[in-house]
């Protein structure tokens, strides 16, 4: 097994946790007890350097601005200009990321790109990798702490995550290297802020009310996907919470969306 490309993984122990929040959006309620089997999760989002090997081996197109996602097209010409301008620093040149961003999380990746990366990593290492489910992601984000708003506790702390403290600074803000902020109780970095993270599940507004109590997985199909954790672009701090579910069309990609990988034991 090529050990040099196996990401550093943390064991998320089996057990129950309280999923959701009673003082958040309706689709984060009700709070309910869920059992998740033990699994492994990469301690940080997939970096540009890690993704570059995938691009080199697979021939898949590198992160760039291609077909505009529906959320951008719907905003008209001004939204498109803004998207292209803000995304330009994250576009790879000639199939390679900026040398200054090798240890930053990869962005400008769609859900299907993240799934393709997991398939490549599985085939290359001989170990099965995938995206985490919503329940797995939330359990991991909480780091073993029950019903805390953020991975570090209940109080917002600008020293614990990369987010947009002042919207006026958006033009000079951006991703930071992985591990720039403290890890949570499971040794995971950037579970809040830096980049949104794709999860496996399709979105279901009634998921929390109807899900089973053990290893729940979202519906087999749908119209919207889910990203979790907030990002450097987030000024609404409610989006940084462990329970927040951000729904987007499946063709979405952004300079603030990345992913991390999971593996079952």
Number of E strands = 9
CATH architectural category: Alpha-Beta Complex
Shape: globular
User: Using only CA atoms, what is the Rg?
Assistant: 17 Å
Q: Please, what is the average pLDDT?
A: 95
Overview of the structural elements:
It is built from six helices and nine strands. The chain is α+β, with helices and mostly antiparallel strands and 265 residues long. It has one domain: paralog of FGE (formylglycine-generating enzyme) (Alpha-Beta Complex). The protein has a four-stranded mixed sheet with strand order 7-6-5-8. The protein has a three-stranded antiparallel sheet with strand order 1-4-9.
Task: Supply database-style keywords.
6 helices; single chain; three-stranded antiparallel sheet; alpha+beta; 21% helix; paralog of FGE (formylglycine-generating enzyme); 265 residues; four-stranded mixed sheet
């Amino acid at each position: 097994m090529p050990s040099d490309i196996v990401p550093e993984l943390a064991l998320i122990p089996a057990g129950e946790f309280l999923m959701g929040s009673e003082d958040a959006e309706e689709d984060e309620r009700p709070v309910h007890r869920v059992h998740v089997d033990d699994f492994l999760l990469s301690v940080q989002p997939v970096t540009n350097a890690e993704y570059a090997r995938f691009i080199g081996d697979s021939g898949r197109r590198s992160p760039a601005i291609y077909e505009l996602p529906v959320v951008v097209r719907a905003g008209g010409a001004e939204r498109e200009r803004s998207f292209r301008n803000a995304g330009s620093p994250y576009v790879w040149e000639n199939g390679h990321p900026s040398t200054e961003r090798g240890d930053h999380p990869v962005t400008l990746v769609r859900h299907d790109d993240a799934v393709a990366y997991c398939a490549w990593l599985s085939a290359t290492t001989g170990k099965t990798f995938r995206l985490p489910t919503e329940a797995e992601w939330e359990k991991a984000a909480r780091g073993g702490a029950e019903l805390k708003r953020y991975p570090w506790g209940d109080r917002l702390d600008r020293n614990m995550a990369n987010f947009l403290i002042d919207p006026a600074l958006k033009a000079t803000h951006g991703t930071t290297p992985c591990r720039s902020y403290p890890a949570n109780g499971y040794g995971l970095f950037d579970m809040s802020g830096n980049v949104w993270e794709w999860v496996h599940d399709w979105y279901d507004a009634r998921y929390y009310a109807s899900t089973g109590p053990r290893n729940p997985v979202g519906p087999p199909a749908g119209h919207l996907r889910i990203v979790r954790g907030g990002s450097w672009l987030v000024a609404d701090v409610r989006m940084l919470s462990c329970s927040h579910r951000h729904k987007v069309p499946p063709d979405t990609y952004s300079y603030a969306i990345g992913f991390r990988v999971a593996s079952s034991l």
